[in-house]
Amino acid sequence: MYTKQDLIRLKQFYTRQLLQDTIPFWFPRSYDFEYGGFLLMRDADGSLIDDDKAVWIQGRATWLLATLYNTVEKKQEWLDGSKLGYDFLNKYCFDADGQMFFHVTCDGKPIRKRRYYFSETFYVIAAAAYAKASGDETAAKQARDVFGQCIAYATGEKQLAKKFTDVRPSKGIGVPMIMINTAQQLRATIGDDRCDVWISQWIDEIEKDFVKEEIRCVMEQVAPDGSIIDHIEGRTLNPGHAIEGAWFILHEARYRNNDPHLISLGCKMLDYMWERGWDKQYGGILYYRDVYNKPVQEYWQDMKFWWPHNEAIIATLLAYVMTGDAKYAIMHQQVHTYAYKHFHDAVNGEWFGYLHRYGTVAQTAKGNLFKGPFHLPRQEWYCMQILDDYLNQSH
């Protein structure tokens, strides 16, 4: 069990890490005052390793800065920084067909587009948070409009670029998951009447098709009818991803006055994937597992990536404060201790992204096409918030 003093110390720790370690690593050095947006592909010491811009990370950084402004402190630098990101996204990151790019040059020339719409979901949360921070009604309208496009993509009403073949149709948990969180962020910042209904539908889809109680597992992808696809790709699990989905559902349970069914569902998802993902030999969360414990295709399957640990820190802490179950305090302490010992860079701040299974740093980049100021600062910010709420309620 955590005592009240333990939780106060944890809140102080996350606050200090966020504001004195994580955020100062990225800002102000990453603001691009020449072209807009952010220069985020950085080595351990903060030096730039590439000046290209990943659209996901541009959106995420915009969301982060606006969220800090909205919830932590009205710092003009954060508001101005979020505007840099918001303006860059609007100016350079949408193609003529309305779909967003995935990867652009520092001055906004398109490099690559992907066959999914996650750039759009990060745009929605960025524009919504910026709209709340700035009062910009155009940003609010853009957030809602692009959310509508995401719903159209998710339902098949609007088509993305086609895959070459579709002989083995499947669907991934990533779509309902990211849409739940996008809707939650939109609802929390500027509001949208569509959010509650759609969140319920996406949670129902996860519960019905991806959560397999009989084998204590959350699938990463399934056939359209929810059955397991018994091929390497279909059997591959990503425990950290499912654990992220678990805390999205626990977050929804909090929003709905501690809805008992959603608490049960979120905790089951966390339990199942902790059992499958936690490395009992070396600690940390393994990146991929096979549902039947067969070999996994990807060679990085036993590495430790930064972001599953951020999601597990949130999920275990949230499960603990919502249920009071001591096992979640133990799990939280395990993953928190492992992560801050192995990923955190005590010299330069922030976290390394990639460890070998044994806990040694595999490479030193702090920012690339997929890693930037999002999972870690979101974890530290969110843990601050839930601990603050919990400690205030327990007075």
Question: How is the secondary structure organized here?
Answer:
Blueprint: H1 4-26, E1 41-42, E2 48-50, E3 53-54, H2 55-71, H3 76-92, E4 103-104, E5 110-112, H4 118-134, H5 137-155, E6 171-172, H6 174-189, H7 195-210, E7 211-212, E8 217-218, E9 221-222, H8 232-235, E10 236-237, H9 239-255, H10 260-277, E11 289-290, E12 304-305, H11 306-323, H12 326-342, E13 354-355, E14 361-363, H13 375-393
Helix pairs in contact: 1-13, 2-3, 2-4, 3-4, 4-5, 4-6, 5-6, 6-7, 6-9, 9-10, 9-11, 10-11, 11-12, 11-13
Would you give an account of this structure?
This protein is mainly alpha-helical and 395 residues long. It folds into 2 domains: 1-26 and 171-395, Glycosyltransferase (Alpha/alpha barrel); 31-167, Alpha/alpha barrel (Glycosyltransferase). It has helices at 4-26, 55-71, 76-92, 118-134, 137-155, 174-189, 195-210, 232-235, 239-255, 260-277, 306-323, 326-342, 375-393, and strands spanning 41-42, 48-50, 53-54, 103-104, 110-112, 171-172, 211-212, 217-218, 221-222, 236-237, 289-290, 304-305, 354-355, 361-363. Helix 1 (4-26) packs antiparallel against helix 13 (375-393) and helix 6 (174-189) runs parallel beside helix 9. The longest helix has 23 residues, at 4-26.
